[in-house]
Amino acid sequence: MAEQAAASAGLDVAPRARSRFIGGISGLRAIAVLSVVVFHVNPHWLPGGFVGVDVFFVISGFVVAHSVSDVRVSSFRAYFFWFYRRRFLRILPAIYLYVLVVVALGVLVLPTSDVTRYVEATGIAALFGASNVVLLWKAGSYFATSSEYNTFTHTWSLAVEEQYYVLFPIFSYWLIVRKPSSPRLRMLSVAAVVAACLLSLASAWYFTHRWPAFAFYMLPTRLWELGIGFLLRYQGFRLVRGVALAGRSRVVAAGSVPVLGTLLASLVLTSTNAFPWPGALVPCFATAVVIAIVWLAPGGWLDRLLQLRGLRFFGDLSYSLYLWHWGVVVLMRWTVGLDTLPLQLIAVALMLALALMSYHFVERPLRHDRRLLALGTPLFFGIYALVGVVIAGTCLALLHEKPRLGLAASNEVEIWDPARVAVAEPAGTCPIARSSADFGTGLKISYRPTCASVAPRRIFVVGDSHAGAYQLMMNHVAARRATPIVLYWSGGCRVLDIDDSVLLAGCEGFRDAALAEVRAAAKPGDLLFLPGLYTPLYRKIWDDAVPADTGLGKAELPLDPAKIARSQALLGGFLKQGLSIIIEAPKPNMPTAVFRCADWFNRDNDYCRPGWRVPRAEIEQRRSRPLAALVSIQQHLPAIHLWDPLPMLCDAHFCNGYKDGKPIYYDTHHLTAFGDDLLLPDFLAILDRTVANASARTAKPVVRRGVSP
Predict the structure, then answer these.
(1) CA distance 475 to 688
(2) From the CB of residue 281, how many other CB atoms can be counted at a distance below 10 Å?
């Protein structure tokens, strides 16, 4: 194959002798891919199965070096194009097909949401070997639950290998193909590769605890795993000769038992904590020793075991199976679910069928296609580049048409999305110029009325993602009251610290900077609105089960006087500055993310069974403790208005996720665009009352339970 590709491409490449095929490695590939598949179908079956990817890295480092060890070339240019022709034929056709098909399916069934916004971007990046960069940028940890719902998360490992292949032709040409001309140069070259691996290992140690996502996804912290395989093959001929001369084959065979046992144990015992350092050490070095044994002792019991027909079958299928299994797993999570044994067996059957079709109709035929092999070098690489660009363009076009092509209810952004920019305001209202900019860990959004008569006061909104979910409502307020509004929001960063919640990293800086800007810009008569999440959640978007403790017990815990005093001091400063203040009372929340369960193809998902209907009395109890804290603050600062959205979100007996067939909630606790519209009349009423009463503050504490417009 290598010689035919080289000759057909017109390159001056000739073999000295074909590298001996090592059949046991195919069985090792099978162990790696099956462990990954089992882990992804049900992690309880094989808790450490994710280290199969690390096994693949060591195998790749060895096999790629082995494949070039008996090649003679006339120039680096010839070797460079010969190597990349082989890699393109091996990797790209299958991943091109996978990305195109899975993006199309995702457009159909994945909801339109913030959590799916970068799924297609990850797939497009996978076409060009850069998906790990997108995942590092947006997804965070591989073990974060949100990563389990991205159909292209698994392509990070392919990206690492492809980035490794950028470096490989350079050092392999001088170290393996040409070989150093003297023992001294050879020793120095080995030292250089070892130093690179040690540096990579040190970076894995450093970043695992300081930047875990970088440690997991990126080549600098994974190079040592590929380097182990490379070094084994690079120095391997000396090991082969040494073992043969010493007659130690039986000793090697006897050592197979503990080595294989160690590798298999790592698939069960390796923890997701502290990974890749030190978690990847044992499986990687055990893999290297297994490779050495099947190479040094061919025909031994371990070699025969790994060449069993079943293992060889899955080993040959490993690339296609790795590609397609993850798409099946994720798409089932988004639709019918993957929680029961029958569904898991269906998933296994689907991924095997897709992998077989990909292997027999795409991977194998195109890898050996004579017409592709006969193409000249510029035309060959030009065709692959063009196909990649066309598929990327097709994916972008499908994404653009998702609102029309998609089946998910959340594609109706005018109902679901409270952050949409294009808003049709009623006739007679003031046109709004909206601008947005990054602000620390969050965003700063300005609404500037452009009509002739603009209210002299301004509204400042500061809060967590619940403030962000009021973007549409603030646009309405700015237009209907001709009032400039500045909204600062960052997820998890509410202003008032009144309970046991712990602020996220960066929140303190965001909050201090936002409030400092408000202090500097605000004038007497302006208004400060502070929304936030206070009611204890049933569960988050990705949580599988509603916990038995629904948070009711916390209602009886005593309030923290120190936290309440700090909040009072903060708010008192703004009152002295002449600002009016509205604080949002704790809103109801749902036990289910509504957008995940809004369609006929996902309503029977096990995640959706708790539904979106909660007794009002239960919600009142759940929020009683944070509400008591806010009431306590208002009792000390009676000029503050406490606005309660609950009466608009609940009827006399239940709080619901839907009203009149339209979703009030987007996920478990953020409102939809329809939810914003539902609250708008009451918010306008309390806003008007607050402005009217700004000069005559009452000392009587009032908890507003809803105002009819």
Answers:
(1) 16
(2) 17
